[in-house]
């Protein structure tokens, strides 16, 4: 319930309204009041005054109570409507309640007005909260369904790209430097760009391979800020407010940097005339009250990463589609619509939650909450340099349900000199493991296959 209320009185008697206001203030209610007694004034007040509660008499010379109730419910059906009358009988009272009135009070029993107003306001707030939770739940279900679809599409598309990239690289190794070679290299470059899009879809659907480590978001922000200074532009001020006692989280460092970059780019695009970009970190504790009002959030200690801008902001309709893949308000060619959906997927895959606060012309704030871990930072291990195998020795079992991928992988390995066993699913791979007379030195398998999956094959090898 709000501290200050807007109460609209529909009454032709200023003295009666003054008495009702006195009763409400004596009962501890703080509010702003407006009185109307004509239908045009009522319509205007509903639009401009935006009442939290309507208190109306049953009849007036200009408008009767039933008409006032009908107009109010058409304009703002969630606002409680209480009749105050000196003549209303039991039959008329029941009829008004059936028509949608919240309650009624007799003028010679105004002592009960405060209690009925408080109850009506509380019930209205409970209904709003319930609808808000229902909407968040529906949104979460929608995002989950879109995620499954996006993951399936990305997986199938990745298989096709694997074949395109693989055979193009094979041909490039075999073709001498001739003019046509450049065209093949363009094919390869385009396939790699398409691969980047599928990785973003996989991030959204939480199916991207990640390497989580214990890290501190302050270090991630500081490291990313160097790139942001070149990316954002001189007309945007970048401000960082970092909690020096910040706790640690477990996440993939590369993905966290991508989250910060994507949110910063989104903020930049929302400030075409310049502005301020603020990146903030803090250690917070999400309580049960917060969790109840924010679907997907979990109670407990978290680390917050906040990215705010002073841009043009968003309305509720835009916010409802914000994290959907390929949703964008930019003109054609200016964006893929995958930046924020990637952020959503990464945060969820890291066990966290994300919330956005925005209003048109008032900027936007994204708040990410990642679970805090009580583990120390570990030094990064130096990268192992890639080693080119000159000739292959040994037997490799390839398990892959996609024919084109299976054929490509087998061809590449055979070309390197390996003996290759091929299985088109997990069951066939297990039979080969059991029946092959010699040793199998390596299993190269798809993870998800019909029936027996790759992990089960690996566990039984």
- Termini, distance in Å? 62 Å
The secondary-structure element order is EHEHEHEHEHHEHEEHEHEHHEEEHEHEH
Q: Output the radius of gyration.
A: 32 Å
CATH class annotation of the largest domain: Alpha Beta
Estimate the mean pLDDT confidence: 83
Task: Based on Cα principal axes, name the global outline.
Answer: elongated
How would the blueprint of this fold be written?
Elements (H helix, E strand, L loop, with lengths): L3 E7 L3 H13 L3 E7 L2 H10 L4 E5 L7 H11 L5 E5 L4 H9 L4 E4 L6 H62 L4 H26 L8 E3 L1 H16 L3 E6 L6 E4 L1 H17 L5 E12 L1 H6 L6 E10 L6 H5 L18 H11 L3 E6 L5 E10 L21 E5 L3 H13 L3 E5 L2 H10 L6 E4 L8 H7 L1
Parallel strand pairs: 1-2, 1-3, 3-4, 4-5, 7-9, 13-14, 13-15
Antiparallel strand pairs: 6-8, 8-12, 9-10, 10-12, 11-12
Features:
7-stranded mixed beta sheet; 20% strand; Helix Hairpins; 461 residues; alpha/beta; 5-stranded parallel beta sheet; Heat Shock Protein 90; Rossmann fold; 15 strands; 14 helices; single chain; 4 domains
Any overview of this molecule?
There is one protein chain. With 461 residues, the chain is α/β, with parallel strands linked by helices. The protein folds into 4 domains: 4-127, Response regulator (Rossmann fold), CATH 3.40.50; 133-204, Helix Hairpins; 213-373, Histidine kinase-like ATPase, C-terminal domain (Heat Shock Protein 90, 2-Layer Sandwich), CATH 3.30.565; 395-460, 3-Layer(aba) Sandwich (Rossmann fold), CATH 3.40.50.2300. It is 47% helix and 20% strand. The protein has helices at 14-26, 39-48, 65-75, 90-98, 113-174, 179-204, 217-232, 253-269, 288-293, 316-320, 339-349, 403-415, 426-435, 454-460; strands at 4-10, 30-36, 53-57, 81-85, 103-106, 213-215, 236-241, 248-251, 275-286, 300-309, 353-358, 364-373, 395-399, 419-423, 442-445. The strands form 3 sheets. Strands 6, 7, 8, 9, 10, 11 and 12 form a 7-stranded mixed β-sheet that branches. Helix 1 links the parallel strand 1 (4-10) and strand 2 (30-36). Helix 5 packs antiparallel against helix 6 (179-204). It is elongated, with a radius of gyration of 32 Å.
